Known about the structure:
Number of helices: 2
Strand content: 35-45%
Oligomer: single chain
Amino acid sequence: MSNQKRTTLALAAALAGSIVVAGAPAAHAEVVDVNYQCVTPIGPKGAVSPIDIKGVRSGDGYKLTMSFQKGVSSSPVELGKGAMNPSAVIELGGAEQGKVQVTGPANSEAIPANTPIKISDLSGTYTPKKSGKVTFTAGVLTIKALGTTTTCTPKNSPGPSLELDVQGAGGSSGGGSADGGSTGGASTGGSTGGASGGGELPRTGPLDSAAALGTLGGTVLLTGAAGVLWLTRRGQRSAG
């Protein structure tokens, strides 16, 4: 095989390696329909709402945001501005077992009587203890309004809305629990629970992922270039 052909094949292998690495996913998310059955002061009510959960790197943990695309439950009387306060639990699975408490602001506008209650985005912080793939699934929703409490429980065993590949403070994988996760959101501030991370966690934002993958892809490309240089020098020695 000629020196030129060897050089071409080595460069092609290096470029192919960097392209494969760049295609690796950082997280998996999907909108999941959750069948909430609610126990209210005036009897049972229910509704299905698509739930979206997002995780964004924040310090040593992740800020979780739980979004409701449809309203759940209703009130027989109008709920004035600021009368309704929502909170919920996100269930952890996979590498960690536990719960993360998420909360949100009170309703910014009055909610008419006998209409679905639109839940604002709920947020909280998750700090991983263990390393590995962790799933995040919608749990119990609690609505407090006018001195009453409504509890809505998922009855259709919904699947996870989010999966993250996380790095815990100890760097070990498997098992573990996130006791309480975090309380806090737009209305209450709150305190972060779980273990505090000592090491840097993997980033889930697109720019952070691109930077990490680009670095790895560049390493593959440099390795290929080193092979090209070795083949070229070998060809020159053979020719001499």
